[in-house]
Design goal:
The chain is α/β, with parallel strands linked by helices. It has two domains: about 1-125 and about 310-325, NAD(P)-binding Rossmann-like Domain (Rossmann fold); about 125-305, Dihydrodipicolinate Reductase, domain 2. The protein contains ten helices and 14 strands. The chain has a six-stranded parallel sheet with strand order 2-1-5-6-8-7, sandwiched between helices. The protein has a six-stranded mixed sheet with strand order 10-9-11-14-13-12. Helix 1 (about 10-20) crosses helix 10 and helix 5 crosses helix 10 (about 310-325). It starts with a strand and ends in a 5-residue tail after the last helix.
Length: about 325
């Protein structure tokens, strides 16, 4: 098994390498790939240095699986080239997510949809993944009708340059600005570019991707906010259901949901926080309480490491599922 990691020198690419190693993914050869300016550099994997190569050379090596985390434009140009040589691409960008003929996969929820014909598979947005992980078991039981979500997103979701901006601001040193304002000691109610409807791309990704993964009938609205945290996205989620909701049953469903960790004991000050999720693959859910202003409505707080389950781990889990189903040889 040859596995290519495209964008191996980037923030998510580095975590993909770490997750592949931690989960002992059965690969015989790692093919680290990056842009021309990074060719010749090396990445560390399983106690060895591996030289980074370019796209054409990677395609010539014919990997069976390619994990892409190199941006939408790169994916649109190169993912089909990898697929043409028999490679299955799992792409972390937004390029393919809403295309009707491409699967948008969270393995615990809709991994059964995958077939041998799926050569380019989309990894959902980080905020969407943690939302639907918490929402899916509840939707099956109570039928979600409306979801209002406010996100509190780590600077790591923007990339290494944003981390450098925040660290420089904290140190009091001159920095290149990734955001239009300082992020340290600040909260910016904008993630990604604004659209004509006044929402940002990030907010509409949550809406559209939730529809595609779970149910297009669910009404979803989102406000995405950037906060000065390194690692871990948080979400305040208000869900209105068609059927009456019982907290005891909600807790049972979340406790039994694969990949979800119920962390909900207010008396002991136990609730999800980014600092708890860093380096973890579970989606933490807590602050469960019924909405006293609306019937059949639940409030919850959902947190996950956006670089792991929100990106790298979900992609590796898709690759593992492909192997288990015999869809990649």
């Amino acid at each position: 098994m040859k596995v290519a990691v495209v964008g191996a020198t980037g923030l998510v690419g580095g975590v993909m390498l770490k997750v592949l190693e931690e989960r002992d993914f059965p690969l015989a050869e790692l093919v680290p790939v990056a842009s021309s300016r990074s060719v010749g550099a090396s990445v560390r994997f399983r106690n060895s240095d591996h030289a980074v190569i370019g796209m054409e050379e990677a395609i010539a090596r014919r990997p069976q699986i390619a994990l892409f985390s190199a941006g939408g434009a790169t994916s649109l140009e190169w993912a089909p080239r990898f697929a043409e040589v028999g490679c299955t691409v799992i792409d972390n960008s937004s390029a393919w997510r809403m295309m009707a003929d491409k699967r948008l996969i969270v393995p615990e929820i809709n991994g059964d949809l995958l077939t041998a014909d799926d050569r380019i598979i989309a990894n959902p947005n980080c905020s969407t993944i943690q939302l639907v992980m918490a929402l899916a078991p509840l939707h099956r039981a109570f039928q979600a009708e409306r979801v209002v979500v406010s996100t509190y997103q780590s600077v790591t979701g923007t990339g290494q340059a944003a981390v450098h901006q925040m660290e420089g601001e904290r140190a009091g040193t001159p920095v290149e600005m990734t955001y239009p304002y300082r992020i340290d000691r600040n909260v910016i109610p904008r993630c990604d570019a604004f659209l004509d409807n006044g929402y940002t791309k990030e907010e509409m990704k949550v809406v559209h991707e939730t529809h595609k993964i779970l149910d297009p009938a669910i009404r979803v609205t989102c406000t995405a906010v950037r906060v000065p945290v390194t690692g871990g996205h948080s979400e305040s989620v208000n869900v209105e259901f068609a059927r009456p909701v019982e907290l005891q049953e909600v807790r049972r469903l979340l406790r039994e949901a694969p990949g979800v960790l119920l962390h909900d004991d207010p008396v002991r000050d136990e609730y999800p926080m980014p600092m708890l999720t860093q380096g973890r693959d579970e989606v933490f859910v807590g602050r469960l309480r019924l909405d006293e202003s609306r019937p059949n409505t639940l409030n919850m707080f959902v947190v996950a490491d956006n670089l792991r389950k929100g990106a790298a781990t979900n992609a590796v889990q898709i690759a593992e599922l492909l192997l288990r189903k015999g869809l990649v040889q």
